[in-house]
Amino acid sequence: MDIEQFRKAGYQAIDRICDYYYALQESKFTVLPDVEPGYLRPLLPPTAPEAGEDFTQIAEDYQKFIVPGYTHWQHPSFLAYYPAGFSFEGILGDLYASSVSNPGFNWLASPACTELESIVLDWASQMLGLSSSFLNSSGVGGGCFQNTASEAALVAIIAARSAYKASYPDTKLEDMRIYTTTQTHSLGLKAGVILGLSVRALEVTKEDNFSLRGHVLRSALEEDKKKGLHPFILIATIGTTSSGAIDNIAEIRSVAKDFPEVKIHVDAAWAGMALVCPEFREMCHLEDINSIADSFSTNFHKWGLTNFDACPLWVRDRKYLTDALDITPPFLRTAQGDAGTVIDYRNWHLGLGRRYRSLKLWFVLRGYGVEGFQKHIRKAVGLNETFVKLLSSSDMLSLCAPPSLALSVFRIDPRPSVSNQTTLPEDALNDLNKLFYGKISARKDIILTQTVLNGQFCIRLAIGSAFTQEAHIRRAFDIINHEAKLTLEAWEQ
Ligand code: PLP
Fold first, then answer.
1. Residue 325: pLDDT above 70?
2. How far apart are alpha carbons 320 and 75 in whole angstroms?
3. What is this structure's pTM?
4. What is the C-alpha to C-alpha distance for residues 458 and 448, in angstroms, rounded to an integer?
5. Which residue has the least CA distance to atom 2 on ligand 1?
6. What's 64's domain CATH number?
7. Is the CB of 181 under 6 A from ligand 1?
8. Would the pLDDT of 420 be above 60?
């Protein structure tokens, strides 16, 4: 493809993307595709073509074979997992970033990439109300993009392990322990597997809304230390995946002062974005995070209007990362790096090359402003309030945990008058709800996800697509209510 062919194909691509978004906005197609596993292989040749093909044909085949297999994460009825961030500014940021295909690992590899990342993550950090200690401009702390929240936690654990080993060099790796809760994302266990370290998932209860309490942490740390183990990091969560639970960082803060060798990483992959609104900062323990977190990460690519991926990790002390990850062979040395006057982000993450993500976040932050972000967050929280009101009007459905920001977790729990029984035993309720979820997930016009809380099988509804409006939430409730009724009828026969 030459430059003029690119211009033509590029115009066509933008036209098609615009048509796609008009259709999506009007729900002209369903959120889930109508394909079966393995649908694509028979449609494509078994090997790459010998000779290059004309892009007109490639673009047609993209529409014909690939688009029909998408799950549409930006669809107004996408209510599963947590949302994937999106904005047109974000698309353009990725397009321009891709246009220079730049791995920006050292300052010299592209000064603009490094400097924009350090500035834009300072903007983001200030927008979320993080302490000035986390600013790149502080020269001590700072932020950099990681691939995902899972990798941010992995990097934080590697840094904490390194810091601990520097202070206690005789510690055996098999005695070092990571702390999470039973509600922590799989990132905790995965990091343990990758690093060969043990992970203790602390029990959290329904009565505590699945939040980690200080006394639970304290007794685990004391118990393990007595056994000769070496606790070195806690992964706390603001907004767990199953129920949006918020660990009690205020209580953790008072425990932390007695265990200064235990680092604290805060995973706020989804709910961290709510910090943009002053009214949500207290419930998310911002002040305590600012006081004790050694590292903090949130995904702009979830609730933060930024196209996948955009996951910053902020640290209070950049040496925490570079002491663990700076390996500089001669071919990577530069005069600026040697002089220590620049940031070389390769020493802040796992890979060498890195995607150029700061451009899209810069575009998005400028396009929306802080007010635009606040509006986006408040809209989703407001829509969730509408959903919760609708749910409370039902005598078949009830919440399994308090609603958290833009997430509700619910199940069928029929009032006795509805189920013709006094109360259903838990096992029966779980079977009933699996049947219910089976009916919902067989539909293509809506997508929700399942989870298990305290042994209870339940269903999550998470709001966050920029295109979701009140009418979509009302319709989602009608579908849920309808399927609940059918499930109960089938159950009672
Ligand atoms: N942490 C929490 C609380 C999450 O909800 C998720 C994903 O939903 C993750 C981490 C994983 O995010 P990532 O895909 O960026 O690793």
1. yes
2. 40
3. 0.96
4. 11
5. 269
6. 1.20.1340.10
7. no
8. no
